[in-house]
């Protein structure tokens, strides 16, 4: 059985709304790690039909962010927060013999969280790399003073005791085959 990396919604329509250089650098390091081991790297692209939406298929926002698009060996489009709902992701993972899915990308509290739970429900071992996810939202979006969205989502998933939640450094210590 095999590991795969799922890179969720690293698209212009999300990434251009904030400074995500740190997250993008971590995601790129993890992608390179998977590529070095010849492990599959699968990109998800979110779209919606809403006219003028930054993720409308007719907009540049729908495109993968240029910093990472060159790594996209598999690209699957989705229309809901779950990367599994009405997509070919599950059948691709089965075909590739994947049993352990690593998850990075955007937005932490929507597509990353929904996909993490959906993967667990389908029998995958799941590792979310918390600080290799990002979100355009903040405490004001949810009217919750002091909310650290990434930390909150990571803590909830970790406390479930069925999802492995690591930060980037823990990922490096535990999984990176070749140091440096």
What does this structure look like?
Keywords: Hydrolase. This is Nicotinamidase-related amidase. This protein is of the alpha/beta class. The chain has a single domain, classed as Isochorismatase-like (Rossmann fold), CATH 3.40.50. It is 33% helix and 22% strand. It contains 6 helices and 6 strands, in the order βααββαβαβαβα. The protein has helices spanning 12-15, 21-36, 89-95, 108-121, 149-159, 168-175; strands spanning 2-8, 41-46, 74-78, 98-106, 125-134, 164-166. It has a 6-stranded parallel sheet, with helices on both faces. Helix 4 packs parallel to helix 5 (149-159). The two termini are 26 Å apart. The model has no long low-confidence stretch (mean pLDDT 95).
What number is the mean pLDDT? 95
- What is the helix/strand order? EHHEEHEHEHEH
CATH topology grouping? Rossmann fold
The CATH architecture would be 3-Layer(aba) Sandwich
Main beta sheet, described?
Answer: 6 strands, parallel
Q: How would you classify the quaternary structure?
A: single chain
> Strand arrangement, largest sheet?
3-2-1-4-5-6
Low-confidence stretches: none
Helix content: 25-40%
The count of β-strands is: 6
Total number of domains: 1
H/I helix tally? 6
How is the topology of this model organized?
Elements: E1 2-8, H1 12-15, H2 21-36, E2 41-46, E3 74-78, H3 89-95, E4 98-106, H4 108-121, E5 125-134, H5 149-159, E6 164-166, H6 168-175
Parallel strand pairs: 1-2, 1-4, 2-3, 4-5, 5-6
Helix pairs in contact: 4-5
What attributes does this structure have?
6 strands; 33% helix; Isochorismatase-like_sf; Rossmann fold; Isochorismatase-like_hydrls; hydrolase activity; six-stranded parallel sheet; alpha/beta; 180 residues
């Amino acid at each position: 059985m095999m590991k795969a990396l799922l890179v969720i919604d690293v698209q212009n329509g999300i990434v251009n709304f904030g400074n995500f250089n740190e997250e993008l650098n971590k995601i790129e390091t993890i992608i390179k790690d998977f590529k070095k081991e010849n492990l599959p790297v699968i990109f998800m692209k979110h779209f919606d039909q809403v006219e003028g939406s930054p993720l409308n298929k007719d907009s540049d926002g729908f495109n993968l962010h240029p910093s990472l698009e060159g790594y996209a060996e598999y690209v699957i489009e989705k229309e809901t927060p779950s990367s599994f709902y009405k997509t070919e992701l599950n059948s691709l993972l089965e075909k590739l013999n994947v049993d352990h899915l690593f998850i990075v990308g955007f937005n932490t509290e929507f597509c990353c969280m929904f996909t993490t739970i959906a993967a667990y429900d389908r029998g995958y071992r799941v590792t979310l790399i918390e600080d290799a996810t990002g979100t355009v939202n903040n405490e004001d979006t949810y009217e919750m003073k002091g909310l650290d969205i990434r930390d909150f989502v990571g803590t909830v998933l970790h406390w479930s005791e069925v999802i492995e939640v690591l930060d980037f450094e823990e990922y490096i210590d535990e999984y990176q085959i070749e140091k440096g």
